[in-house]
């Protein structure tokens, strides 16, 4: 009898949980100052200006940012509770009906760094934060 009560209690919640939108993060490289920068991108359904403004606010909450051309840069970013010596670069680009937000670092000569996992989580967190802001508006 107790099992039936628990099932009936959680059964109405199951359909709501199954229809959440997933945030897909992809690994991409960008050319920054003639060098390849490794990073991650997330695609969101919004105009580029709106995504760029949200990206700027998101990064300013983490530290001091500087805009240089199409990129927003942050020296010695604090990502996932760790301070890195790499410069974080972020940008947006329009791809049809969606806009892509890209975060990356110049690691130099193809070396792998410990920042990859934290950077991937940062991009995912931005995608989730952006979608929550869209829903609230």
The topology string of helices and strands comes to HHEEHEEEEEEH
The total count of helices amounts to: 4
Poorly predicted ranges = none
Q: Count every beta strand, where a strand is a DSSP E run of 2 or more residues.
A: 8
Strands in their spatial order, largest beta sheet: 1-2-8-7-4-3
Helix content: 25-40%
Strand pairing plus helix content: what structural class? alpha+beta
How do the strands and helices of this protein lay out in sequence?
Elements: H1 2-10, H2 14-17, E1 25-32, E2 35-44, H3 48-60, E3 66-68, E4 71-75, E5 78-79, E6 82-83, E7 87-95, E8 98-105, H4 115-136
Antiparallel strand pairs: 1-2, 2-8, 3-4, 4-7, 5-6, 7-8
Structural notes for this entry:
The protein is an alpha+beta fold and 137 residues long. Helix content is 35%, strand content 34%. It has helices at residues 2-10, 14-17, 48-60, 115-136, and strands at 25-32, 35-44, 66-68, 71-75, 78-79, 82-83, 87-95, 98-105. The strands form 2 sheets. The protein has a 6-stranded antiparallel β-sheet with strand order 1-2-8-7-4-3, with helices on one face. The longest helix is centred in the C-terminal third of the chain and has 22 residues, at 115-136.
């Amino acid at each position: 009898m107790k099992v039936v009560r628990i099932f009936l209690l959680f059964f109405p919640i199951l359909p709501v949980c199954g229809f959440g939108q997933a945030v897909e993060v992809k690994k991409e490289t960008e050319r920054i100052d003639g060098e390849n920068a490794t990073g991650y991108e997330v695609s969101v359904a919004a105009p580029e200006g709106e995504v760029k403004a949200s990206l700027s606010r998101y990064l300013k909450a983490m530290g001091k940012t500087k805009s240089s051309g199409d990129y927003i840069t942050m020296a010695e970013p604090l990502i996932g509770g760790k301070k890195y010596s790499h410069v974080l670069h972020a940008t947006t680009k329009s791809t049809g009906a969606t806009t892509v937000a890209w975060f990356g670092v110049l690691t130099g000569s193809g070396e792998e760094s410990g920042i990859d996992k934290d950077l991937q989580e940062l991009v995912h967190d931005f995608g989730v934060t952006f979608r929550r802001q869209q829903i609230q508006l």
